[in-house]
Amino acid sequence: MRMTDDLGEDVPLTGVPERIVSMVPSLTEAVAVSAPGTLVGITDYCTHPELDLPRIGGSKYPKVDRIFDLKPDLVLANAEESRPDDVERLRANGIPVWVMAAAATVPAALASLRRLLTQGLELDEPDWLVRAEDLWRETPPVRATAIVPVWRKPWVVLGRDTFGGDVLRRLGVALTYADHEDRYPRPSLDELRAQFETGAAELLVLPDEPYLFTDEDGPEAFPGVPYVLVSGRFLTWYGPSLVEAHEATAAALSARLPALP
Question: What's one Pfam family the UniProt record gives for this protein (predicted)?
Answer without folding.
Answer: Peripla_BP_2
